[in-house]
């Protein structure tokens, strides 16, 4: 009996080492995403010191900005030409800025209420922009590692193991780390916890960059047009349905949080 692996051409196969390396990128991203999902509201209201209504408005504004930033970032990455490929460089280039933005976002400044709100908008917006700059190219990277759909399925499976592991780590250890680093000073504890998460994320993203390769390239004669791409996207009924479902899923996560 022929196994699924044996059906994959040798040239299209990806080593387990590379698959694990790729999964580290999603694990790194979840140090931020799961922190947003479970603890951001708690931090801003109980430690940072702004109202839940102000936080909710800020999250709405940044999510609307993401709706524009995500496809724009995808278009930029797709048109990037380097010796390392289209998408891998962004995983490395923005790893450290993302870590710095994470620390700044979870730093409580000595400002008035209005000053804190402005600081929160600036730092959180910067953090989300840098998260997009890393995560959108990272997600696209899987599609150019191999042309084989079975191998891409295998890569995705291992990727989600990495994401799940990091998510469980964040849920279980974050508040314990805040208490450990803060010694009663929660503002200091959150700042140092994000320093730790930033260091771990940078190391994981660097390993993801170093261990992966882009093998699938478009034909040299293929030309792309951004206006045409966007027109095709926004007139695609399946894509619009998918966006609607995604908005409902994100709303469910936010309401649950």
Explain what the structure shows.
This protein has helices at residues 16-48, 52-78, 88-93, 95-105, 113-145, 149-182, 186-211, 226-234, 237-256. It has 257 residues and is mainly alpha-helical. The chain has two domains: 14-214, Growth Hormone, Chain: A (Up-down Bundle); 225-257. Helix 2 (52-78) packs parallel to helix 5. The model has no long low-confidence stretch (mean pLDDT 89).
Tell how many strands the DSSP assignment holds: 0
**Largest sheet, described in full?**
none
What fraction strand? under 5%
Computed structural class: mainly alpha
Query: How many domain regions?
Result: 2
Name the CATH homologous superfamily of the largest domain: MFS general substrate transporter like domains
In the CATH scheme, the class of the largest domain would be: Mainly Alpha
Q: What Rg is obtained from the alpha carbons, in whole angstroms?
A: 20 Å
Indicate the mean pLDDT.
89
- Name the overall outline: globular
Q: What is the H/E order?
A: HHHHHHHHH
State the helical fraction.
Answer: over 70%
The number of helical runs is 9
CATH topology of the largest domain: Growth Hormone, Chain: A
- Poorly predicted runs of 5 or more residues: none
Please report the distance between the alpha carbons of the first and last residues.
48 Å
CATH architecture of the largest domain: Up-down Bundle
